[in-house]
Every structure is written in C-alpha cells, then in structure tokens.
Specification:
- The chain is mostly helical and 244 residues long.
- It contains ten helices and no strands.
- It is elongated.
- The mean pLDDT is 89.
Length: 244
C-alpha cells in the first residue's frame, strides 16, 4: 500500500501566537520609548496649550503702538519656521523645540525693546519649567533665541532656521506692507526720523543680510535683492527731486 503524505496545517491561532511572542520585546521597547518621549519632550503633548498661552499674553500685554512686533509677527515667524524645518529635514523633536523658540522669541517686547532677546529668554525660563521643560532644554531654546539678535549669529541648524524665519519677509512679496508697519513702529518711538532715513537704513541692512539655510537662500534671496534695488531707486529718486 502506497504511503500517503498528509500535510497538516498549523492552526491560525497557533501561528499568530508565535508572531505575538516574537513581537513582544519590540512592543515593550516601543512602550518604554514613548514613555521616555512623554517625560523628556513635553512639547509633544503640550505645545498647543503653550501656544495659546503665549499668544494670549502677547495679545493682551504688548503695547498698542507695536505695529510690527505684534502677534501677527510671531505667527508669521512660527509659520515660516515650520516650513523651513520641514524643508530642511528637521525631526519632530527638534521641530517642537524650534517652534517653541519661535513662540517665545519676541516675548521680551512685553517688557521693552532694549535687549528684548534676553528678556524673551527670561520669560522662557520663568514659564517653560511649569510646562515640564527640563532646564537643559530651556538653555538650548534660549541659545536659539539669542542667535536672532542683530547681527544674527546662529551656531546650529535650529538657530539658522529661526534666524531665517525671523527675517523671512525680506524676501517675500508682502515685504513692503510689513516694512511700512516696522517704519510706523520705529517712528512712533523716535528711532527713525523720516522715510528717507528709513530707506537708507533698510538698504544698508538688507545689503548686508544673508540667509543661512539652503531653503531660504533658494526661496528668498532673489526677491530680497529685487527689494533692495527698489529701495535704492526710491532713494535716488528722492535725491534727484530735491536737487531740481
């Protein structure tokens, strides 16, 4: 009698049990990693709450004459920083830190213009620990904010991104309306005399400004140069008309 080969399939539940046993160490490691992230990177779970808090303080606490350094500017920098972070390949954890720095970078204006970057850091050191930020993270965030002080001096990729985001408007199509807002603000504080002086300052400042990240260089440099030429044309036209 010929031998019969009988193929016996293992029950699905048996195979599934083996797979679960193999996955168990991976799942345990993943759980530990998620717990680590939750306790060491609070921005992942609290950024929205922190954003509402900061924007609320800026809306109610900033002087009304700040037509440029207001909530709109903070939101603008936040948006630009997020775009640059994505384009530059920044991971999620560093991106959270960067966006938190963008939120805090001009909170110093709540207390005044002079040394506002340092005042922003004081604000961050006062409030971030209550939101679960470790002192080392706050120190890193403050170094990113301080890099935006003019002349900008970024020492890391995140600082480069925030610096570029802070002056992103220089190379955008909405430059002139925002520039007018800044002129109005400075004029109200007696920091600029008139439009002629303002245009001279702008031409000099923008002529010396350079973006740091590859993304901003690619997206903004050409338009910024066009704006410089337009400002110089205004200066030349003004001088010509005065000499007629």
């Amino acid at each position: 009698m010929p031998h019969l080969l009988v193929r016996v399939n293992r029950p699905w539940c048996f195979n599934n049990s083996i797979k679960m046993q193999q996955m168990a160490p991976i799942l345990v490691a993943l759980k530990k990693h998620l717990i680590y992230l939750a306790f060491n990177f609070p921005g992942l779970r609290q950024f929205k709450e922190l954003k509402e808090f900061i924007l609320g303080r800026l809306r109610t606490g900033l002087p009304v004459h700040l037509s440029y350094h207001n909530v709109d500017h903070t939101l603008d920098v936040l948006h630009a920083a997020e775009i640059l972070a994505d384009k530059e390949g920044i991971d999620q954890l560093d991106k959270e830190l960067l966006l938190t720095a963008a939120l805090f970078h001009d909170t110093g204006f709540l207390n005044g213009r002079e040394e506002h970057e340092a005042l922003s850091c004081e604000f961050a050191r006062k409030y971030l620990p209550a939101h679960g930020y470790h002192p080392d993270k706050v120190d890193r965030l403050c170094s990113i904010i301080m890099a935006t002080r003019i002349p900008q001096s970024p020492a890391c990729k995140l600082a480069e991104i925030l610096c570029d985001a802070d002056l992103d408007y220089l190379g955008r199509n909405d430059f002139f309306p925002l520039s007018q807002n800044l002129f109005t603000e400075l004029l109200s504080e007696g920091l600029v005399k008139d439009e002629v002086e303002w245009n001279l300052q702008q031409a000099d400042f923008m002529g010396n400004h350079r973006y740091f990240t590859k993304t901003a260089i690619h997206l903004r440099t050409s338009v910024q140069q066009q704006h410089i030429e337009q400002i110089k044309a205004k200066i030349t036209s003004k001088v010509f008309n005065e000499n007629q």
